[in-house]
Structures are given as C-alpha cells and as structure tokens.
Design goal:
The chain has 166 residues and is an alpha+beta fold. Helix content is 23%, strand content 31%. It is built from four helices and eleven strands; from the N terminus they run βββββαβαβαββββα. A seven-stranded mixed β-sheet has the order 4-3-7-6-5-10-11, with helices on one face. Strands 1-2 form a two-stranded antiparallel sheet. It has a two-stranded antiparallel ribbon with strand order 8-9. The longest helix has 13 residues. The protein is globular, with a radius of gyration of 14 Å.
Length: 166
C-alpha cells in the first residue's frame, strides 16, 4: 500500500507492506564485511529491526546507538540495523562509535528489504525510519513507521514490547 510521509516536512511516498500480526518476511542483505546476510539465520530469536535512511545522519546514528545500548538490559534480543548505506560506511560507523556486536546490514545490493518489507522513500531511494519487534515465531509484535523521517522513534514503546516478549 502506498503511503505518504514527510522528509524535512516535504511529502514523500513509500510502500507500507508489513503490519502487526504479519509474519515478517525473510530478506537478504550485505553485512559490513561484504558477506551475505540472511534473516532466516535468526529464526527463533526475538528481533528489533531498526531501519533508517543513513547512519551518516544525526538521528539515524542516535537510533543505532540507543537500540544497541538498550540491549544490555535484555538477554536474548538481537538488533538488526538496515539502511541503504554501503557496508564500508556501516563498518566505519560501528568502529568509530565502538559498537562491537551490532548486526548492521545494507540493502543496497539485493534490495530485498525494500521489496519484501517496504519503506523505500521513492523520491530519494533511501529507507524510511521504521522499527519492528519480531517475536521468536517470526510474528511482528510492534511496528513504528515515523511519519516524519527526521523524528526519532518512540524507544520506550518498543522497549516495553521487548520486556513483554522476554
């Protein structure tokens, strides 16, 4: 379903395909070391899927850092960060911020995230800001699509769902 959100208060178009209660589809992407990532490798785990336009912007950087810091409060939750950034930029960011265990993947090559899940900002070729919480059965238990791409997600709401699932 096409949806209009805003980027710097300018209307932009995305495809919004996944809702709470849906099975989260598999997708293939590229890890920061250029190897292939496959979401199926994380079956049976509780996941935070953290998507945004670019790790080289302030809000996206804050979002990545915040979710990875919060994971110390959970024993069995994995954060998977997805953007269109090249794997080199993702690797540099994680090294600069001393984020050692983050799963950061790029949708630049296979485009399966944008095609299977949605969220591509048509006018910019970047992903929108989205957060999904996926339970151990692969079901979406939380979804936030930021109506303004420049706004941070509601971390507290997502973390409350994680507390319930753990």
């Amino acid at each position: 379903m096409k949806k209009t959100i805003t980027f710097k208060n300018t209307p932009v178009t995305i495809e919004d395909r996944i809702n709470v209660g849906d099975v989260f589809p598999n997708f293939k992407a590229v890890n920061k070391d250029l190897t292939d990532f496959n979401l199926e490798n994380y079956k049976g785990k509780t996941l935070v899927i953290n998507a945004f336009p670019s790790v080289d912007t302030g809000i996206c950087a804050l979002q990545t850092i915040r979710f990875n810091q919060e994971m110390k409060n959970f024993s069995d939750v994995i954060v998977i960060t997805v953007s269109k950034d090249l794997p080199f930029a993702l690797g540099r960011f994680c090294a600069d911020k001393e984020i050692k265990n983050a799963v950061t993947v790029s949708d630049y090559k296979y485009r399966e995230f944008e095609n299977n899940i949605g969220g591509l900002i048509v006018e910019l070729g970047l992903l929108s800001r989205m957060v999904f919480i996926i339970d151990k059965d692969g079901i979406v238990r939380y979804k936030e699509l930021c109506e303004e791409v420049g706004n941070e997600p509601n971390y507290e709401n997502a973390l409350e769902i994680l507390k319930i699932l753990e």
